[in-house]
Design a protein that fits this description.
alpha/beta; TIM Barrel; 10 helices; 29% helix; binds S-adenosylmethionine; binds iron/sulfur cluster
């Protein structure tokens, strides 16, 4: 196994392997910390302090980081935020990233609100996959969660994406105890009727308000039992990609699959192959990490590709075995989900 050794110069092609042998092939790129809604589990309601625009990486800077990362084995990209579709001209970034040798897949996670006007452009630019986040079909509950109205826009966004040719769209729903139980069956039925791959995500302590409580976590296991008894029987499905965070189940009637991202109750850190870069160019090796590696400083101070290679390897070498949420010493990161990039 090739291991990174700090005293040696970095091989410009060396894979990003951490000290636990995890090979990193996936990079999540936050393109903005701004958003057009205000989900309580992510952003504050008021007085959000967004980064000044000049602090955000330009598309060219993002592409530079990706081209170096791809030489070290990064193959999949996911654009996220904040809400990635509020970043102007995002299709242009996708076109640039599509040109980077080694990149096999570009995906996007969005709240879907701006998809009606962007889906065709995104498809034409070469976007491969789409995840749309929707926690509630009920407008009043959607508004309670997001502090904005928008269910109809999200539904129109999903329809627009399907009409633009996106297939196998994933629908991500954060589940919250004593709040979203009534949405489980309607969301499952909606996903099955509309050929969407629904995944429930456990609520993680990444809210800006720092109000997360463990008893708000509605476990994937509890949801699975509800679906199996009220929608259709389920059988665990084979996982082609072991690094996927979701445990997938197939409905016994063969109509769609459903996944559970049990980040809190069943952490999947041992298979993690992901790195992240924030909108202002800070590399991170974990959602819950407390250290960042400053790629923007290298990009804006005339640093070389070798400097970026070194930074990527430093970031990977420092990765911990797990997020440590189950430890009594666990502290949530200072930055909330919208500032890191989910
Ligand atoms: N704005 C886009 C969206 O909502 O899809 C992309 C960014 S968002 C931060 C990415 C994903 O993280 C969404 O599916 C969102 O529901 C999820 N998320 C945000 N805060 C979370 C939290 N505290 N726990 C679990 N999932 C969270
Ligand atoms: Fe915006 Fe996504 Fe955060 Fe909701 S989860 S506030 S849509 S960035």
């Amino acid at each position: 196994m090739v291991r990174y050794n700090k005293v040696m110069a970095i091989d410009p092609q060396s894979p990003l392997i951490d000290s636990f042998g995890r090979v990193h092939t996936s990079l999540r790129i936050s393109v903005t910390d701004r958003c057009n809604i205000r989900c309580f589990y992510c952003m504050p309601l008021e007085n959000v302090r967004f980064k000044p625009r000049e602090e955000l990486l330009t598309f060219e800077e993002m592409t530079k980081v990706v081209s170096v990362a791809a030489r070290h084995g990064i193959r999949k990209l996911r654009l996220t935020g904040g809400e990635p579709l509020v970043r102007a001209n995002l299709a242009q970034l996708i076109r640039l990233l599509k040109e980077v040798p080694g990149i096999d897949e570009i995906a996007l996670t969005t709240n879907g609100i701006l998809l009606p006007e962007t889906a065709v452009d995104l498809k034409q630019a070469g976007l491969d996959r789409l995840n749309v986040s929707l926690d509630a079909l009920d407008e009043a509950l959607f508004e309670k969660i997001t502090r904005r109205q928008g269910v109809q826009k999200v539904l129109a966004g999903i329809a627009a994406a399907q009409a633009a040719g996106f297939e196998q769209i994933r629908l991500n729903a954060v589940a919250i105890r004593n709040l979203t139980e009534g949405e489980i069956v309607p969301l499952a039925n909606f996903a099955r009727e509309n050929d969407l791959h629904l995944r429930f995500i456990e609520f993680m302590p990444l809210d800006a308000d720092r109000a997360w409580k463990s008893d708000q976590v509605l476990s994937g296991e509890a949801i699975r039992e509800i679906i199996a008894s009220q929608v259709a029987p389920l059988a665990e499905a084979n996982r082609a990609d072991k690094s996927q965070p979701a445990v997938d189940f197939a409905y016994a009637d063969g109509r769609q699959r459903i996944g559970f991202i049990n980040s809190v109750t069943q952490p999947f850190c041992q298979a993690c192959n992901r790195l992240r870069i924030t909108a202002e160019g800070q590399l991170r090796n974990c959602l819950f990490g407390t250290t960042e590696w400053d790629a923007r400083r290298i990009l804006r101070s005339g640093g070389s590709d070798a400097d970026l290679s070194q930074l990527l390897h430093d970031c990977v070498a420092a990765k911990k075995a797990s997020h440590g949420m189950d430890s009594p010493e666990f502290m949530p990161p200072e930055r909330a989900m919208y500032q890191i990039g989910g």
